[in-house]
Amino acid sequence: MKKKLVIIFVSLLDFFVVVCLFLAYGPISYFRDLWITTSMTTLNHRYLANILYSEKTINQVLSQNYLKEVEENTDITKIEFNHIEEKEQYDSIYEEQILKKDADNDLYKVVPLSGSGYKGYMVVVYEPSRIHLEVTKYLGTRGEMLTEMSKRKSFEVGINAGGFADAGGVGSGGIPTGTVIQNGQIIYRGPETGWTGGLIGFTDNNVLMLTKDSPEVAIQNGMRDAVEFGPFLIVNGKRAIARGNGGWGISSRTVIAQRQDGIVLFLVIDGRQPGYSIGISMVDLTNLLVRYKAYNAANLDGGASTDLVIRQKLMNRPCGNGGNGERWIPNAWILE
Questions:
Q1: Looking at residues 84-102, what average pLDDT do you find?
Q2: d(CA 178, CA 237)
Q3: Residues 279/119, Cβ–Cβ less than 8 Å
Q4: Looking at residue 191, what is its pLDDT?
Q5: Quick check: helix, strand or coil at residue 255?
Q6: In the predicted model, is pLDDT for residue 178 greater than 80?
Q7: How far apart are CA 242 and CA 233, in angstroms?
Q8: Residue 32 — φ and ψ, nearest 5°?
Q9: What percent of the chain stands above pLDDT 90?
Q10: Residue 13 — pLDDT band, cuts 50, 70, 90?
Q11: Which of 87, 107, 150, 273 is most exposed, with minimal Cβ within 10 Å?
Q12: Dihedral angle sign, alpha carbons of residues 202, 205, 208, 210
């Protein structure tokens, strides 16, 4: 009996190895491309691609899977803040989810999201004038968990915002990877770390501005609060051009967006949790944003940093190593 069990175990192990080798090196490129792009767009898990593939193969896959941003800055004159009127009949279920407010809440609405392999939330914000950037009180030293920030500030809704230096995956969250603007002032200018995206933030007139201009120029153009990250997924109604799977693999995502009627969308998609939520690609994420008529939209820090807190309660399931999955982060977009 024991001998039979050993034979069955070895057979299953052989089958598993053959399947893995076929997926990694077989004629179907989907798994290979997904593995490489997911690994190479993280800060600390690129070794997962290098273990299986040569540098030549990795570079070839990255050259065939990428996202080309729209080479424009936000035209802030195109955002017109309209009074939201509920209808008896909506054009689509997506419009109803956005425009039909909850009976007891005129400030925001929470919409659960789910799709192929992912789960998350969208917060529909009707009063963008109440969105501000909150920064860790230990800036330059360590970050704060979003739940920690919420207890200190007592805000209604919060999502994580910009990235941070994270050497070895044990970063303290206190050193942003790009410039941070708060109340029209540059409060932190991140170190030169290569690509950091562009400035993502709100103007004095509560328009979500996405720009590749310098922080000084952005402030001159009315930028009130901003972090430096990306990529920009939609600018002035034009979506980024995706090649292959978009080059960012599948992971947890945090996104901020605004419709032409001024409504702001906070999107949080959980990931890296088989059986619950694997995550979402940039291509599918952009499709989701288009479905909800986002006019400007940008990717924020994702992965283990993806976080949503509502009234001091952690809503999503972060995939970090902490007790509840949260990580220390340098800043957050909050709705007060």
A1: 92
A2: 26
A3: no
A4: 64
A5: strand
A6: yes
A7: 10
A8: -60, -50
A9: 71
A10: very low
A11: 87
A12: negative
Counting every residue written for the chain, the total comes to 336
By the 10 Å C-beta count (0-12 exposed, 13-18 middle, 19+ buried), 141 is classed as exposed
> Position 27: which residue type?
P
**How many C-beta neighbours within 10 Å does residue 312 have?**
16
DSSP string, 96-159: HHHHS-BTTBSSEEEEEEEETTEEEEEEEES-GGGEEEEE-TTTTT--B-HHHHHHHH--SEEE
Dist CA 29 CA 9 (whole Å) = 29
- Average pLDDT, stretch 240-264? 95
Ranges assigned E (strand) in the chain: 66-68, 108-115, 118-125, 131-135, 157-160, 180-182, 185-188, 198-203, 208-211, 223-229, 232-235, 238-239, 241-243, 253-259, 264-269, 294-300, 308-310, 313-314, 331-335
**199: amino acid identity, one letter:** L
Q: List the structure tokens of 304.
A: 């283990």
- What pLDDT does residue 202 have? 98
Q: pTM for this structure? A: 0.90
